[in-house]
Design a protein that fits this description.
mainly beta, seven-stranded mixed sheet, four-stranded antiparallel sheet, globular
Length: 133
């Protein structure tokens, strides 16, 4: 059974850092693209970052570029999201998700594809991140 389990969330002061982990079970991670998404109260779920399975290219939402760093350790079936210089606007439930593919051949914007929740078919339960003083 495929499972994704996020951890590492918590309460942090503005300017602080957190590192989220997403451990996957029941699959071989290197066959999948993996993404991080977040959803704040009253807002739609948004793509934060993703790594493709084909070339390892990384994608980031403009709102987190330069502050968040995503990585993956396929032998450990784990993905990470290092979040630095956090602000109150980063408060949300963070989810990891898997994209089973295949990558649509007519896709023109790979960034939009990998940062869209519609491109993912398996989700974790989420971990809460709260940035507050």
């Amino acid at each position: 059974q495929v499972q994704l389990v996020e951890s590492g969330g918590g309460l942090v002061q503005p300017g602080g850092s957190l590192r989220l982990s997403c451990v996957t079970f029941g699959l071989t991670l290197d066959l999948y693209a993996i993404g991080w998404f977040r959803q704040a109260p009253g807002k739609e779920r948004e793509g934060v970052s993703a790594i493709s399975s084909t070339d390892g290219r990384k994608y980031y939402a403009d709102s987190v570029k330069g502050r968040f760093t995503m990585s993956r350790d396929d032998p450990k079936n784990t993905a990470y999201l290092q979040m630095d210089n956090l602000g109150p606007e980063d408060t949300a439930v963070y989810y990891c998700a898997l994209n089973s593919g295949p990558y649509p051949p007519d896709t023109r914007d790979s960034g939009s594809y990998y940062l869209s929740s519609e491109s993912y078919d398996r989700w974790g339960q989420g971990t809460q991140v709260t940035v507050s003083s």
